[in-house]
Design brief:
This protein has about 240 residues and is α/β, with parallel strands linked by helices. The chain has one domain: 3-Layer(aba) Sandwich (Rossmann fold), CATH 3.40.50. It has nine helices and seven strands. The protein has a five-stranded parallel β-sheet. Helix 9 links the parallel strand 6 and strand 7. Bound molecules: zinc ion (ZN). Zinc ion binds next to helix 2.
């Protein structure tokens, strides 16, 4: 299939998905993914009480996780995760809705919360860069969940959303079920950075940090291309 035809089919699929979501929201109004109550904002997946009850990740949680990697954790000038991510927990329900449940609109307000928390600790960067998905997977899903978070974070930080600065030209296997070493080998050389990243201060955004090997590989690619300062913010930090 030609790339143009594929892009056209993807655009048509996106319109149908948006239409389907709109109809579904009328028939089944969105409920809080934590307790089932009607949320105050239809754009947030949780009611204020469930949002408050999420466990905040410790300040040094991400840095400590990246220290366990053989190399590369020091590529970041500052790191932040909003909440602790538990298998089967409320935040996983949120992540699933964001990632697989065709609810990309949840990403922007959650990204704003990430941007606000980031602004309390660090200066505003030049732009926010989402961890990209490989093109095939993005076309399957219709969107990149990290890009919706990045869009919200950029809005809160009043800076640019720059999904164009990082590409993922090589497909990688899913990281699920791989050991730490296997994960690292799997993502090395997966990314490509645009030359415009040189000299800039960038905030990398992803949904959940597990070992951190994907985000560090992405950051090293920007670093090698001449990025000046790199930060990292994630919605969740997987409990280990
Ligand atoms: Zn709730």
């Amino acid at each position: 299939m030609s790339p143009r035809l594929r892009a056209f089919q993807s655009a048509v699929a996106q319109v149908l998905r948006d239409l389907g979501r709109g109809l579904l929201d009328i028939i089944y109004p969105p409920r809080c993914l934590g307790c089932g109550a009607r949320p105050e904002s239809p754009y947030l997946p949780l009611c204020p009480r469930c949002l408050q009850s999420l466990e905040r990740a410790p300040d040094t949680g991400v840095a400590a996780r990246l220290d366990r990697l053989a190399t590369g954790g020091e590529v970041f000038n500052g790191t932040l995760a909003l909440w602790v991510f538990d298998e089967g927990g409320t935040l996983q329900a949120v992540q699933h809705a964001l990632k697989y449940g065709n609810r990309p609109r949840y990403g922007v307000p959650l990204g704003r919360l990430m941007g606000q928390a980031f602004a309390e600790k660090y200066p505003s960067p030049d732009g926010v860069v989402p961890i990209p998905l490989h093109t095939t997977r993005r076309l399957e899903r219709g969107y990149n969940q990290s890009a919706t978070l990045a869009e919200g974070a950029a809005d809160a930080l009043d800076c640019a959303h720059r999904p164009d600065l990082l590409d993922r030209p090589h497909p990688t296997r899913s990281q699920t079920g791989l050991s730490r070493e296997e994960r690292w080998r799997n993502v090395q050389d997966a990314f490509a950075a645009a030359p415009e990243c040189a000299g800039g201060q960038w905030l990398l955004v992803d949904d959940v940090l597990t070992t951190g090997s994907t985000t560090v590989a992405a950051a090293q690619t920007l670093d090698e291309a001449g990025a000046d300062t790199l930060y990292l913010a994630t919605l969740g930090l997987a409990r280990q």
